[in-house]
Design brief:
This protein is mostly beta strands. The protein has one domain. The protein is built from no helices and 4 strands. It has a 4-stranded antiparallel β-sheet, with no helix packed on it. A hairpin with a 6-residue loop joins strand 1 and strand 2.
């Protein structure tokens, strides 16, 4: 299951949530309970030589 990054528009809190691709893109901020939107995150990959 992928981990998605979220950012709260009210308090600026950044947090991660594990969810499937089909789950809602809106979740509640763990600090202030405001609805936060999924952020586009940078993909990490390792170069193998």
């Amino acid at each position: 299951m992928p981990v998605y990054e979220f950012k709260c528009p009210a308090c600026g809190c950044k947090f991660e949530v594990r969810q499937t691709y089909n789950d809602k893109a809106l979740v509640r901020c763990p600090k202030c309970k405001t609805t936060a939107k999924r952020q586009i995150s940078i993909v990490n990959h390792k170069k193998v030589i």
